[in-house]
Amino acid sequence: MAKHIKHIATKVGLPLVFKSSFDKANRTSSKSFRGPGMAEGLKILEKVKVAYDLPIVTDVHESIQCEEVGKVADIIQIPAFLYLLVAAAQTGKIINIKKGQFCAPSVMNNSAEKIRLAGNPNVMVCERGTMFGYNDLIVDPRNFEWMREANCPVVADITHALQQPAGKKLEGGGVASGGLRELIPCIARTAVAVGVDGIFMEVHDDPLSAPVDGPTQWPLRHLEELLEELIAIARVTKGKQQFQIDLTPFRD
């Protein structure tokens, strides 16, 4: 996947950071695939980093993981477990903080500041949807604007944001995440038009066989087409510019 995605990203002129998880620790079902574990997973990520000359982002789930992960990863991702922030910040790596599905966007101001107060100015915040009742997430485009108040780059997770948590029943019992893959272009277009600084997305060459998050994996065969469209939107949008609203009476 790193080889193919790098080829496409280079072709369309986009900088790429490769993300994969050594442990999907936040699974609701004990039957769900979690990954190879930290030791083996970091070996794989290091091979990817060296073989394809790619920066790496991966997540941590415990503070004791931060130091070892920091030896391989260029960006450490915090999956809404905010107690990890200081330990992650102390690695000196870029920290990507995902907004909890239960959090208001204003919370991210404090989260980003916590990284800075730990001596690390390298932080970005990520919108990944908000819980809407049971088994569903919605994306509020206002959050992209409000999260800029954290004074750091804003990233849109356009695939996890379309999950339907625990919305898919498994054969033999239990549940897993469902998702709305067909809406990925919709959320992506919206985020880029509003003016986000980066896109986070899951891509797979065989989504129906993906061991994790299959319903929200974007097919590799359509990646180049979607990225080209997003680049075209980014070139014309004024989303990052604050609109100067004139409230004085209009006179013809």
UniProtKB/TrEMBL annotation:
InterPro entries documented for this protein: Aldolase_TIM, DAHP1/KDSA, KDO8P_synthase
Catalysed reactions, as listed in the record? D-arabinose 5-phosphate + phosphoenolpyruvate + H2O = 3-deoxy-alpha-D-manno-2-octulosonate-8-phosphate + phosphate
Q: Mention one GO biological process in which this protein takes part, according to its record.
A: monosaccharide biosynthetic process
List its EC numbers: 2.5.1.55
Q: Which GO terms describe its molecular function?
A: 3-deoxy-8-phosphooctulonate synthase activity
Q: Which Pfam families match?
A: DAHP_synth_1
Q: Where in the cell is it found?
A: Cytoplasm
Q: What is its main location?
A: cytoplasm
* PANTHER family in the record: PHOSPHO-2-DEHYDRO-3-DEOXYHEPTONATE ALDOLASE
Family stated for the protein in its record = Belongs to the KdsA family.
Q: What is this protein called?
A: 3-deoxy-8-phosphooctulonate synthase
